[in-house]
Design brief:
Shape: globular
Number of helices: 9
Helix content: 25-40%
Strand content: 15-25%
Radius of gyration: 17 Å
Bound molecules: D-xylitol-5-phosphate, zinc ion
Number of strands: 8
Oligomer: single chain
Structural class: alpha/beta
Order of helices and strands: HEHEHEHEHEEHEHEHH
Amino acid sequence: MESFDRIAIFATNFIPDFTMQVSPSLLSADFAHLSDDIEMINSSEADMLHLDVMDGVFVPNISFGFPIIKSVSKICEKPLDAHLMIVEPQKWVTQLRDLGVRIMNVHLEACNHLHRTIYQIREAGMEAGVTINPATPVMMLQDIICDVDLVLIMSVNPGFGGQSFIDHSVKKVRELRKLIDMSGSKAKIQVDGGVNAETGRLLAEAGADCLVAGSYVFNAKDPHDAISTLKHL
Ligand code: DX5
Ligand code: ZN
């Protein structure tokens, strides 16, 4: 329905009532001064805070885990959006819920029983997201699209901040928008990796609902401004 509205809006040139959601990625924050960065997020137009959890197995890097999430959760006033780049994410559903995570994103490539994991997440009271890597086709989501609250399209290979945007991701967002509209799913489309004002605009036009941005926000001279730019593309 939403994208229908969007088509009508473009056609008639009205001011769109659609606003992009923005989820700054904590991975690019200054870990020696995390509370300053969380304060910045609290006072910004960000809709949520993206937490990249990496295990050194599913991705070739290790980031942070429960102790950091616990501390962040105490002071962050925005919903926590956890992106789990780990094997067997189903093991940690209740712990993440108890730490205050609102959205739990699991990789399709990391789940042997994705449908079961999605329902574990929803039954725990969180929103359930499924994430796909750049080499995973959108069609792989066909039989799960009506069960998820969110699809996260990776526009870089997961594991590191500051990588270049993979152009092919724009086409994937378009395909996913079609799949969502045709299936009647209510899933939102989130995109993560190499997002800046330029790539963000392409993603917005393709039908993305939410942009994750790490280096574009935290390396900016004015992070509030960078968040606002993505919010009002
Ligand atoms: C990469 C992470 C991203 C990362 C994005 O594996 O999932 O969330 O922080 O960083 P940028 O925006 O710098 O590409
Ligand atoms: Zn991420």
